[in-house]
Specification:
Elements (H helix, E strand, L loop, with lengths): L11 H9 L1 E4 L5 H16 L4 E2 L18 E4 L6 H21 L5 E9 L5 E4 L9 E8 L12 E4 L5 E4 L6 E5 L5 E3 L6 E9 L7
Antiparallel strand pairs: 1-9, 2-3, 3-4, 4-11, 5-10, 6-9, 6-11, 7-8, 7-10
The structure holds N-oxalylglycine (OGA) and manganese (II) ion.
């Protein structure tokens, strides 16, 4: 039966985040919604609406393909129905993280990202020197039938010195503490789509 909320309860999130700083769930989002988001991302790409991603924030922003080679477009409320549904789901997750982990997350920003074949994003943290509002990252993958040999893994650098590679398979959602978990995107042999977002705290200057 289709899930009317298009959301399988994301139960492990809070415990996993509290204990190890990250959480992963396959088939976290209704498959029809994931497919609609992939179509929206491809439509924006075909319309020339994706721009080379920058590094950093505001005036300090630079496009440096040696660091990241994806092209992005931000989600704004009211643009497209599947995006609005996704934003609503992420707001539910935001409230639950606040309830269960007292994170004080205030809002959510997200963009589509398209990595052409061979593009990558070097090891980094999702917190800028000049903007520490990003507290929790949430990445949803939009690629049906991704095969292990195709590359494009999200590589997480864990506390114990080991790494964990995540295939960017449609429906997989990875949630992690933005300032604490270094990660990178490995190059792929095919186009790779993701929807990357950040729950943010109130902006009241350096912590
Ligand atoms: C990012 C990022 C991961 C991914 O945009 O900061 O790390 O798998 N994306 O797309
Ligand atoms: Mn990142």
């Amino acid at each position: 039966m289709p899930n009317p909320h298009a959301f399988i309860p994301f139960e492990p999130t809070s415990d996993d985040i509290a204990q190890r700083g990250w959480s992963l769930q396959r088939d976290a989002i209704d498959a029809d919604l994931v497919a609609a988001l992939a179509r929206e991302c491809r439509a924006r790409a075909a319309a020339g609406e994706l721009s080379p991603a920058g590094i950093g924030r505001g005036d300090g922003q630079q496009v440096r393909e040696g660091i990241r080679g994806d092209r992005i477009d931000w989600l704004e409320p009211g643009q497209a129905e599947p995006c609005d549904r996704y934003l609503a789901l992420m707001d539910e997750l935001r409230l639950r993280l606040n309830r269960e982990l007292f994170l004080g997350l205030e809002d959510f920003e997200a963009h589509f990202a398209l990595y052409p074949p061979g593009a990558f994003y070097q090891k980094h943290l999702d917190r800028f020197r000049d903007d520490d509002r990003r507290a929790v990252s949430a990445v949803l993958y939009l690629n049906p039938e991704w095969l292990p040999g195709e590359g494009g893994e999200l590589r997480l650098y864990l506390d114990d010195g080991s790494t964990r590679d995540v295939l960017p398979e449609a429906g997989t959602l990875v949630v992690f503490l933005s300032g604490e978990l270094p990660h990178e995107v490995l190059p792929a042999s095919r186009e790779r789509l993701s929807l990357t977002g950040w729950f943010r705290r109130r902006g009241d200057g350096p912590l």
